[in-house]
Amino acid sequence: MKQIKNLFFSFLALLIIFPVLVSAQDMVIPNAEVVMPDTPQPKGTIVGILQNFMQWLLIIVGLLGVIGFVISGIIYLTSAGNEEQAQRGKRTMVYSIVGIIVAMLGVIVMQAAKALLSGNTSNF
Q1: What is the mean pLDDT of residues 69-74?
Q2: What is the pTM of this model?
């Protein structure tokens, strides 16, 4: 019975794989010109892609800093006299402010580097 099962599943696997193998065949037409369809090419350069990635990353860091600031304010307000909870809220607030400052400095550094590398110091 086990051999029949194995044979059946092997046959089933062959039926599934066979159309893929057949469709992988390439028709060769002698003396035919190969015409590539018009495929859209990427518009940006690697530098532009990296700049966009860094800007998105800095936006995410800034948003997380603001969200952390709000959460730390809620923790501080709901401490209700618990000194440990109040300290935790203050510490989290300081960390979120530092995160926001780092994100803002990142944007400034990106703009300065872009201006210096492009040779356009009027925006600097």
Answers
A1: 92
A2: 0.55
| DSSP result, 57-122 | HHHHHHHHHHHHHHHHHHHHHT-TT-HHHHHHHHHHHHHHHHHHHHHHHHHHHHHHHHHHHHT-GG
Structural domain boundaries, residue 63 = 46-123
Q: Which residues contact 124 (CB under 8 A, 6 or more apart)?
A: 112, 115, 116
User: What does pLDDT average to over the chain?
Assistant: 79
Rounded Cα distance, 124 and 115, in Å: 6
Domain membership of residue 113 (yes or no) is: yes
**90-122 confidence digits (pLDDT tens):** 999 999 998 889 888 888 888 888 788 777 666
CA distance 71 to 67: 6
